[in-house]
Amino acid sequence: MSDWEDEYGEDEGAISEPSVVHKATSKATSNTNIRNEYFGGKRGGKVEREGPQWRNWRERDREVKSPVERPASNRALTLNLDNSLIGRVIGRGGATIRELEQSSGARIKINRGEHEGEVLIFGNSDVQQKANHLIKELIGTGRASEPRLHYGSKSSGSKSDSCWSESAPQASAVSPSTSIDWKAIRENRGKYEALKWKDLPPLKKNFYIESDSVAKRSTDEVRAWRKENNNIFVDDLKEEVKREIPNPVYTFEEAFACYPEIMENIIRVGFQKPTPIQSQAWPVILSGLDLIGIAQTGTGKTLSYLLPGFIHMDLQSVPRDKRGGPGMLVLTPTRELALQIETECNKYSYKGFKCICVYGGGDRRAQIKIVTSGVDIVIATPGRLNDLQMNELINLRSITYLVLDEADRMLDMGFEPQIMKIILDIRPDRQTVMTSATWPTGVRRLAKSYLKDPMMVYVGTLDLAAVDTVQQTVLVVQEEEKKAYIFDFIQNMEPEDKVLIFVGKKIVADDLSSDLCLRGIAVQSLHGDREQCDREEALQDFKDGRVRILVATDLASRGLDVHDISHVFNFDFPRNIEEYVHRVGRTGRAGRSGVSVTLVTREDWKLAGELIHILERAGQEVPEELVLMAERYDKHQKEKEMFPAQSRGGRAQRGARDRFRGGSHRRF
Ligand code: AMP
Known about the structure:
- By secondary structure, the protein is α/β, with parallel strands linked by helices.
- Helix content is 41%, strand content 13%.
- The strands form 3 sheets. The chain has an 8-stranded mixed beta sheet with strand order 5-12-6-11-10-7-9-8, sandwiched between helices. The protein has a 6-stranded parallel beta sheet with strand order 13-18-17-14-16-15, sandwiched between helices. A 4-stranded antiparallel beta sheet has the order 2-3-1-4.
- The longest helix has 19 residues, at 624-642.
- Adenosine monophosphate (AMP) binds next to helix 13.
């Protein structure tokens, strides 16, 4: 385990395996028996549920549409092949398997025996069939023979074990030298897509009626408005012919005059005017276009996608109760953020839309119960949703409005494979909105893969926006002095102050909060090792002001919306400068000003230069020691380049080890 926090909650991190995979032990197991074994035997009894006893949405649909039994696809679909063919499925260094997984969305595992082996295909039945077909294409080009295929399996290995042994010689008769025709496989993928999505109801996307006042705005006026409002920049990412970029709305009425219930909600909540991102995003999203919003939490980005999403769902041609699943999905990196979005959703409760939050660490059974009883909006962390999807407990085909919230953070946390699998089950003509605080290559790639001809709205500049509502103080200190600094800071807190203290490791969060408790100071802590209910309580206590000090890991650096945090104290410097900006942005919110105090030790020298850049851009004081530190680091880097051999084994190696231990998939 890393010294830095290494694990998410139950599924905040990447779940690489479907969580429930059972193999049948009897080759003659009937479909019905397979299901009974799974739900009755292996899981220790049925999930108790009111109303009709569906185990998943497919089953419910079958009940309505057709009595035909299908194999339960939370089981592996198994192909028995001889070893020469298994080798081809694997490919050099696993390359073919990876390509197959990517093309199909299934997860593939190989069990090799002496002469033959099993290819186990996991996932829902669509992706299993897709992978099965691709494998057949791969190994059987130009041949009539079928690989042996069944659900569940004998334990793999010897030839005589195969329950499909008759066809074995045919499958293994293929020349191993047949080359893989990826072109044909890709073409077939297109055919699959078309088949998969036929029979879907038509989709409506454009609900925008531009008011006269908005239409009349001149180009110069709009340009000036964008400059004054956080320097908003809008771009059309459609290649070739560019479209007209909608003018911003200045008032709620200009966006929602035709939707009185939305207006009522806004009036009830008491907001004065749209935030800059809302002004520019609403006309784009309401027009049915995909949108990328580069904006931080605190800018009003959640409402910028929620309100148009409500209208989108409400005005689809198929009534809500006939859709067979949710209409809106919001994917978000952490439970805290998911819960926060849920609160926003419920605050504006539009036309009684039912919303559920699906996240790791939450009560899985309860979540399944709500999901299967019918919801309109699902707000989920990718790990848990992928788990429900793989077990066919949620129908994603009905989703027409998809939001990828804080995309950069989701990538940072290693969720890309889950996102990919989830999106494979969502209709491709959906409307997609993506938000991100930064615009690195990974996020661009995600946008290119999953959004169609999007418009992009940047709030602030594209590179890291310096937080200009926060007075930032940086103190260069020794590691062993840090506690004295924090105790001194706390002693000098005013009664109305509220401080969020960031630490790098879970153990430091525990250590520091118990030290403070021992001194009789009321404090809460938030990190990934705490039970979900404790995390929620800690946050609530801090929000409500029952405690005014919260010690947290970077779990709290993004997204947490507590308006009245007066101070951010960086006890440990974050591991990258983006995280610094996110942490500091927890204060100075909703028009208030804030203060940040950051302790920097010589261990943090490699980020000194970037920190100076941020401070300078925000017009903050740059301490002399920080400049010296940055210069020393630059010098050290130059020496390393000139004399690489000398630095081997020293700091460089430690750095590599730390990177390895911390990993790029950070867990808080
Ligand atoms: P977000 O960026 O979505 O995390 O929003 C931060 C906070 O701003 C949330 O508490 C919202 O309720 C609030 N908010 C959203 N829109 C507005 C608005 N137009 N005026 C004032 N506050 C808003």
